[in-house]
Structure formats: structure tokens, C-alpha cells
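Example record used in the benchmark description.
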Amino acid sequence: MSVLSTPSSPLLSPPIARKISISISVPFLRSSPVTPSLPPLRARFVAMAAASGTRIPSFTAGSTAVMPPSHPTYDLNAVIVLALSEDAGDRGDVTCLATIPIDVKAEATFIAKEDGVIAGISLAEMIFNEVDPSLNVEWSEKDGNYIRKGMQFGKVHGCARSIIVAERVVLNFMQRMSGIATLTKAMSDAAHPACILETRKTAPGLRLVDKWAVLIGGGKNHRLGLFDMVMIKDNHISVAGGVTNAMKSVDQFLEQQNFTVPVEVETRTLEEVKEVLQYATDNKTSLTRIMLDNMVVPLPNGDVDVSMLKDAVLLIDGRFETEASGNVTIETVKKIGETGVTYISSGALTHSVKALDISLKIDTELALQVGRRTNRA
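Model output (C-alpha cells):
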């Protein structure tokens, strides 16, 4: 069991959409009065304070299977506070205030409503902690584990108002992260021995959360942003006047700045691959990876032609890492992985993700009955 411990406001409004199920199964218990929640204004104050620093909170090894990516400016706590403040508005949870006495306690149980990889458990603990540090949370699974439909995999106990206030924000994050982790796991298994990468096609403001989910699902992270890798793409090449000019400019810039970062260049034809290799033969270069973009060609029958991709990999012959990009789906990724590329990147992992269905209820037994009635599949 983990006990949450960061001050916050139990009156922040409840989470918004669900796809992971949490159920509260123990009947309400009256206990000694809990401290009244602070006004919603506190959330705004915390958000401003958090935004002034850049931090990723520490985690206990027991609850965290996979650590979040390291980022120089991203603040997970500020993202959580913003999500809670968005829900609370300027009044807090008016439904809880109207229907639930402040001294009522309850226990809620997380229930999976479909099969998949669970992700966001560590983040959920942070959210519960922000809402009410007196809440007790315990899990029977950890981030990255595979869960089955109907499985009860965690519980939270404490002030009923606080649980309901945190519910939707917790589920929104967990559902999205679990959907990303589930697809990543499926694509990683199919692509082996190639490694699966996401791209920068992430929800604005949620990039680190999305990329954390990819790690939980067994993938690897591409660059976190514009700052941690030189990535020479088609537009850079067009403006620079060609691949060679662009690469030469990058090498000169990095030398002048005494700056070391990975360097990737996008190629779209075998001729561009040859041009890159020729430049690397004739010059000292910081190049580390060659992207082979849209060299997977869709066929009318639904299959793909990977012959150009194979030829490019043979040309490079291990001199640099290779990355296949374009027309990557769960149906095509196995064939792409068999070409010998080092990495396969897919924006679909985080761009068009289907959330995993989960829920949080007070009456577990009734929740399971309703689930059986409405989810026959």
C-alpha cells in the first residue's frame, strides 16, 4: 500500500471521461470529520508556483516499473494541477458538495473493462496525492503489466469526496497512457528485432506523458523535442539546397558551438541515401542515423512492398543506425522489421490512439453486473 502525501484540494471537480474502471466496493463509513478542502483558488496558486520551476517528481521503486523520460523543462506536477484546475473551475465539485457529507469515507476499486497493458499507475498516485494526501492507494499490478477484462487491479480508500474529485482526471490519464502502451507493446513484439519509436505527434502539453506510456509499452523514445537531436528533414533540405549542403551546415554549426547531440537525416530515395553516404565518406561528420522515409510502398491488395527499404539498408550496411518511417501499421510492422532496420517510427502510437477502457465505482458488485450487461464482447 502506498500513502499519498502532497497537499491539495478535495473539492476539485471529478474526472471527465472514462475508459479504465475503478470501483468503490466498501460501504460508506462515517468517521471523524476530515479537514475541509481548500478553495479552488489554491489550485491556481499551485499551478503558477509549479510553472516557475521545472521538475519531474521522484518515485518509489515499488510503484514505478518504468521511469518517465528526463526533460529539462517539463513539470509533471504542473500538468496535474492544470488538469485538476480545469475540472474544478472557480467553484470546485458542486455535485460532491451538494450530495456527499465531508466526513464520509469510501473505498474504490479499479476494474479493467478490456484487455491491455496498464499504464499510468505511478501518475495516478501523484494525482490522488495532489487532491488529498490522506488517501491510501494500493495496487495488485504495476505499470507495464498485462491486464484482462474484469480484473480488479487497484484500490483507493479515504474521503469519498476526494476520490470522486480525482476519479476522472486519474482515468483520463490512465486510459490514454494504457491505450498507447497497449499499441506500443503489440507493435514492438511484431517489429522485433527492430525497435519501435514514437514521434513528436503527441497531444499538446502531454508529450512527456505520451512518451512515458511508450516506454511502459516496451518502445523507445525518439527525440523529446527540438532541443535534444538535430533532425534534418525534407523542409530543412529544401531550404538548405540539398542533403549535402544541409549536412555540411550541421557539422559546421556543431563544431562551432562545441555541441554534441545525435544527428539524423531524412532520405526519400536511394539516390539521397547514396549522397549521404558519399558525404560521410568524404567528410568528418556527426551523423548517427539515417531515416528512410516512405520507402515502404502500399500495394493495392493491402500488402506493402519493402524492397526499396531493404536496398537502402544494404547500402548503409551498418555504417549508421537506420529508421523506417511512413506506412507503419500493426499489419505492416512485422514485414518492415524483417528488413534489418534499426528503428521503426510511428506517429500512430500517440497521434490516433484508442484509449483503454477502465472505470472507478463505489459499488464494485453493481459495477461488474452493469459491465456484464453492457459489454458482451
